[in-house]
């Protein structure tokens, strides 16, 4: 693998695999315990660089292996177990995209229709420094971050930040605020990663699907996959949930911006960023993606919807961004090889890797300091190494 490709792979949580999935003992728990990712998470907890973590690895041809590390909170020291819920950050975008595509299959939305068809507040939009926008963005443009809606990767104003980080807002209130902001580009003209854009597509789904987005997630993704612990909200009284952490003066402390700490004041469905899920359930979603929309006998995405979701919509040397998912393609054949995403929110971090050639997956959830490249590389070593 050349240096440029290696950098792309780590940054996009992707792997380039040349492995034989079916060798005996390929996914044995003993082998996993000695793996780089297992050793790394153990060390990071021991050194108090992260508070707690979960790892789920396997393939669609073998049993899933689960391992938990550390504590849910440094204030309670209650241990993480395989059922502990973590916020998975922007890995939520894959789940949200699956909801939108399911609604398209039902004929409730069309991906190429400007969103002012459903949301009147987007009928007149201004582009920063360029006057009136020719039209509103489409759902397809929102899904692949080509909508022109502002990106959190630029410096945000206080109001732009509020629309995507004030969890006391409803999704409707958030999107009304986003609609009043200027676009940063003409819809469809360029890629700009946008959490705000995913809030907008979630609100379109609510209007078109006539249900709150968390209920649409349950109907179209969670129930078909038997994900009983995956949702945007932590049930009242449920205490098996990790708390976001951050490092302050070299010490782990609880992140006060952790969404579920608001209790019944937590209202915002941050569509592309605030799903709570244990790694084992996120891994079931990963298996469905490897299965091209199916998990066992259960179909979540139609074949055509899976093709739509996993088609790169941005131009990059070895892949790009599809609908809610990052894609690596084989340079020689042009075929999809890796699907991936990473997420970070309020001291939570999550990584998901899905290899379409070896049928392997890996999911890591953790809380604490930022160790993205280190964790991604170690997860890649497990998912991609020959067995």
Describe the structure.
The protein contains twelve helices and 15 strands. The chain is of the alpha+beta class and 387 residues long. The protein has two domains: 3-83 and 278-384, DD-peptidase/beta-lactamase superfamily (Beta-lactamase, 3-Layer(aba) Sandwich), CATH 3.40.710; 97-214, DD-peptidase/beta-lactamase superfamily (Beta-lactamase), CATH 3.40.710.10. Strands 2-1-15-14-13-12-11 form a seven-stranded antiparallel beta sheet, with helices on both faces. It has a two-stranded antiparallel sheet with strand order 3-8. It has a two-stranded antiparallel ribbon with strand order 4-5. Mean pLDDT is 90; it is low at 1-25.
Summarize, please.
31% of the residues lie in helices and 19% in strands.
Please describe the topology of this protein.
Elements: H1 3-11, H2 29-33, H3 36-46, E1 50-59, E2 62-70, E3 86-87, H4 92-105, E4 126-127, E5 131-132, H5 139-143, H6 158-165, H7 171-179, H8 195-209, H9 213-225, E6 245-248, E7 251-254, E8 276-277, H10 279-290, E9 294-295, E10 298-299, H11 303-309, E11 319-321, E12 326-329, E13 336-345, E14 348-355, E15 360-368, H12 372-384
